[in-house]
Amino acid sequence: MSSQSIPGARFVDPKILSRIGNLELMARTVVEGFINGLHRAPFFGASIDFAEHRGYVAGDDIRRVDWRLFARTDRFYVKQYEADTNTNLTILMDVSKSMAFASRGIPKLEYGSFVAACLGYLAQRQRDRVGIITFDQDIVTHVPPSAKHFNVVLHTLDRAKPERAGNLPIPLNKMAEHFKRRGIVVLISDFYEEPDAVLDAIKPLKFLGNDLIVFHVLDPAEIDFGYDDASSFEDLESGEQIPVVPQSLAKEYRELVRAHIDALQTKFSEHRIDYTLLNTGEPLDRALFSYLSSRERLMRVR
Amino acid sequence: MTFLTPLFLVGLGAIAIPVLVHLIQREKKRVVQFPSLMFVRRIPYQSVRRRRIRHWFLLLLRTAAIALIVLAFARPFVNRSAATAVAAQGARDIVILLDQSASMGYGDHFEKAKDAARKIVRGMAADDRATLVLFAKNAEENMRATSDRARLEGAIDAAKVTSGATRYGPALKLADSILSRSPMKRREAVLVSDFQKSGWSGSEDAKFPEGMSLATVSVASPDTANLAVPSLTFGRTHFASQERVVVTAGLTNKGDAPMKDVPVSLTVDGHELETVKATVPPRTSTSVSFQAFTLAGPNVQGFVTAGSDPMPADNTFHFVLTPSEPVSILVVDNGNPDSSLYLSKALSIGTAPTFQVDVMPAARVASGSFDKRAVVVLNDTMFPPAAAGGVLKRYVERGGGLLVVTGDHTTWPTQEMDLLPGRLGPAVDRTDGLPGSLGYLDYSHQVFELFKAPRSGDFSAAHVFRYRTVDVTEGDRVLARYDDGAVAAAERKVGQGRVVVWTSTLDDSFTDIGVKPVFLPLVHQMVRYLARYEQPASWYTVGQVLDVAQRAKGRTDRIVVTPSGARVAQGGKGLVELSEQGVYELRSVSGGATARPESIAVNIDPVESDLAPLDTRELVAAVTGHANPESAEPAMAEQLTREEIEKRQGLWWYLLLGGVGLLAVETLIANRLSRGERFL
């Protein structure tokens, strides 16, 4: 899907967005442009829609009793709606040094920040509580979800600096202990871990009943390995250098990366975790579209 | 091999560069930061393999390329001798003169000569060309100028020793002619021979112009042993109307060692008649006589063989003998028996030929008396009546010989005047004062040719007291004059015959020449001349030309069979060069099987037996005009500086091209190999 096929795509070019500098303004630009570009917005307002009737039990608010149904059936039924409550959206943002990588466009961390800001903005629009946790090999920043924390979230994203190497299991295990209430958890990372290790680290979050949405952010160079000259490649996190002849390695590297992505996708889908691969060279709305489409499918199934 | 700029050879140290590049892995300065090397690390990494050389061929190519380029900068050149330096100056035109004379049959001389010729051919550069000239007495362009070595070697292989004598002059002149036409600047003749001294007289007009060089390759052996039969003599005696022949063979030892008890055998018509032992001291000659044998018929073939040595060709001497036929002479005199005494006595002596003399007074001569006479002598007599009316003239015109000896009795009819050389005049008396003598002799004439050499006959000792004058007319040839200028002898040719007038007598009335030593040979010579007598040759020498037409005697169905068996149809015409040793035969195609063919014995030139070598420097000096043979080489090479030699050779250019070519090949191969590599 090209950027031209999506209305409003001109507003979501990562390079252009990176010039805005204000995450809120950026998020609003993306989301408003994205929503306005669609002919309809069937995914919103569902929370006030009728979902089903259930029998009245003591303690229920008598205002929710469907009196018309009582008149027909002479029984008390309570109307139940889909979004009868606001949810928590917690963004888990990987700020390890590998996220600082950028081959041509913007760094992965910045791209992930855009995604996080946009999702936060969407959530904030529907009065959900938004929080953020940044981590590398440990938790760096923790902003608990709150209806008032959107600006703090944006501020946290803005200040996030990749300084240390990453280690997914340790911070995620710690986080799992903090999530006491069900909500939506968005994990944004480049996942330079073995798929099994990644899954093992994420599973605890899922066990608490959270909706887990995973964004796998990769730079085009990480996927295509489009290098020509033989060079010494330095690991951003460990500092290790390896001489590499890209022409000799590229094919095999691409196969390994593809296998890694496929493995992640397979394992996440086995555990009903939404997985979206984000290429920092592609427009931002692709991530949103992909995310929201998957959410809609899940809702229909449910 | 030397170098113009040897300091550049220091650059050969650069050969170590590929090795170091192979063995020392230097990290690339450029560092690419990458998020994680998790996947890169999983790919098998082969940097360890850099520490050992895997592609020796590539390393060899690289080092060879660097070495070639460095050598090119050092400007190498080959500092060869002057002769070989010249070889690098362009294509050569070579004429190989290969001696195939009979003397080359000595031992392995000819094989050595052919090997030398092959070596010359194999030493030719690609653009050189060579001409093969085979020579003996004459030179023949056997293989025209070509660069095809195989053809040249094939021609050399096919060359054979002939029976010809050695003559360097024709070969050198032919080489001069070939090289003069050559467009190439470098022209060389190479003479491969045993360099017999007899082959070069020094008077040959063979001289190379400047720019042509002559090299010599001698195959002569330092010590030669050679016994030869150079000639035979035949002593003929007549006994009981048969001719008996005693053969005497000359033997020559050309070596430095004596030849002892050498068997010398005589073979006649296939039968070995006798073998005698002979001893020949070194560098001397001797003779061996065999017992007489009867010459049964014409064309008796025979040969004498003496011993065996490395050169067998001259150990055998062939001959063909035919019984001699007497010359029939009719002496017509005036009836006085004394007038023909001296003449008949002189003609009675003679073996080759023998003379059959019939003396007859003029009055008794009949018209048929002249038949089958080779010579008619009118000895101081009147003109025979029977000879009048053109009878004698017709005899002469048919080829007969007529000797007119004038004296007081000589008369000559006017109507027969056209038969006599000149007009006959009166007698002149020289008895007063000093007698006359023969003052002029035409030594160029066949009659007097025998006396041409000094001390070969003193005619001045003969006194002439009286003679008849003869006024020779135009067309007659005066053969001799007296001291007063009067004609002593004159000749006229009539038809096919000859008429000679001798103006004095051949007895003691007019002159005393009859008692002088020159009388006998003079009479014999005159009679032989008039009878057109030719001594039948018992052998010819290789190289002589045989007049088949004369031998065929008008018959056109003759063929010539060479000693090797080849048949040459001549049809009774033409000349045949006798090029082989042995016996030629003239056969009649229509003749019966019993007809004995006419045979001609041919022997090699006796000088071929003399293997004394010539100083090749003398030959080269005479031909090239340079006393020092080496100076006959083009002088350019001596004057060339190192820079000029290097520039002419231009080896650096090839080395550089070779180096660049190797680098190109190395690049191609390295690219192909590196596609399958995963290491830096």
Helix percent of chain B reads 10-25%
The proportion of strand residues of chain A reads 15-25%
What is the helix/strand order of chain A? HHEHEEHEEHHEHEHEEHEH
Low-confidence stretches of chain A: 1-11, 38-47
Level-2 CATH architecture of the largest domain in chain A: 3-Layer(aba) Sandwich
Biggest contact: A-B, 33 and 24 residues
Biggest sheet statistics of chain A: 6 strands, mixed
Task: State the CATH superfamily name of the largest domain in chain A.
Answer: von Willebrand factor, type A domain
Order of strands across the main sheet of chain A: 5-4-3-6-7-10
Examine the coordinates and then state which fold CATH places here, giving the name of the CATH topology of the largest domain in chain A.
Answer: Rossmann fold
Structural account:
The complex is a heterodimer of chains A (302) and B (680). Chain A folds into two domains: 3-41 and 86-301, von Willebrand factor, type A domain (Rossmann fold), CATH 3.40.50.410; 49-81, no CATH class. Chain A contains ten helices and ten strands. Chain A starts with 13 loop residues before the first helix and ends with a helix. Chain A has helices at 14-17, 23-37, 67-73, 108-125, 150-159, 169-178, 195-207, 220-224, 246-270, 284-301, and strands spanning 50-55, 77-81, 88-94, 129-135, 139-146, 184-189, 211-218, 231-235, 241-244, 274-279. Chain A has 302 residues and is an alpha/beta fold. The model of chain A is unreliable at 1-11 and 38-47 (pLDDT under 50). The longest helix of chain B has 25 residues, at 651-675. In chain B, helix 3 (56-73) runs antiparallel to helix 16 (651-675). Chain B folds into five domains: 2-74 and 650-675, no CATH class; 91-222 and 615-630, Rossmann fold (3-Layer(aba) Sandwich); 227-323, Immunoglobulin-like; 327-531, Rossmann fold, CATH 3.40.50; 540-600, no CATH class. The radius of gyration of chain B is 42 Å and the shape is elongated. The two termini of chain B are 41 Å apart. In chain B, the strands form eight sheets. An eight-stranded mixed sheet of chain B has the order 18-17-19-20-26-25-24-22, with helices on both faces. By secondary structure, chain B is of the alpha/beta class. The chains are: A alpha/beta (302), B alpha/beta (680). The A-B interface holds A 98-99, 101, 108, 190, 192, 219, 221-222, 227, 229-238, 240-245, 248-249, 252-253, 256-257, 260 and B 25, 27-28, 30-43, 45, 47, 674, 677-680. Strand 8 of chain A pairs parallel with strand 2 of chain B.
